[in-house]
Amino acid sequence: MLFGATPLKKFPAPVRLIIAYGINSAQNAMMAYPLNEALFNSTTAPHAIFQIVQAPGFTTSDASSSTPPTSPATSRRRTTPRTRRRRTPGPGSARRDNLSDADRQSYIGLDEGMAAIASTLRSSGPVDAVLGFSQGGAVAALVAAALETPHRDVHAEQAAWVAALREANEGRGLRFAAVYSGFFAVDESLAWCFEPKIQTPTIQFIGSLDTVVDEGRSRALVDRCEEAAVVVHPGGHYVPISKEWAMALAGYVKHHAQDPEAAKM
Q1: Sheet containing 50-54, strands listed edge to edge, beginning at the edge strand earlier in sequence
Q2: Where is the composition biased (Basic residues) (predicted)?
């Protein structure tokens, strides 16, 4: 899916970005809107063209629209979730009931979810960046860490999906990651993603009234990123789509879209 007009020759090639969704269908429908508002309705980055690669497990018919869904009900009518827990599981996918404290530290279906993302990259081509909301935000951080070069040493349990992800992205690191309402993944087998800190530049949006993801968990992810820009909005667990917050993304994206050296390659 190509967004925007034909770029001028003096500008770099389009930045390819994959979106990692959460399990909230209303918010998933809004994920592409800040990109449209920030990149194509703004004078700060009129040339920044994106190619959006949809992660498996969710489709939306109006992702290219510059108009946000009018309500959660409207969003649900316009979207088609496809077994998100199975296809794109992430840190939030772990079942919370009937589990011991030890069991709650591992994430159900993570391997399959990452393999599905690798399959998407293999068929659609490598990407330069990742954007994620909620569980997708946590996954975005893991993807960024896994793709960094020089490659990190990997825990044996994740070796297969990490190898598949790196191969699918042709060994390339990401220029940046954008995270909305994300959080630190506490599974001890994922410690290699955060030690040393994630070097890929990130911009992380935190809702000061978020009651779904505790701010402490979002801050824990920030603390494990070497180069993190933090934007706090006065809202809850959602993707802020007003111009004020879209412009924060615009300036960040403009810089990294123009600077290929921002990638950790």
Answers
A1: 50-54, 15-20, 129-133, 176-180, 202-207, 228-233
A2: 75-88
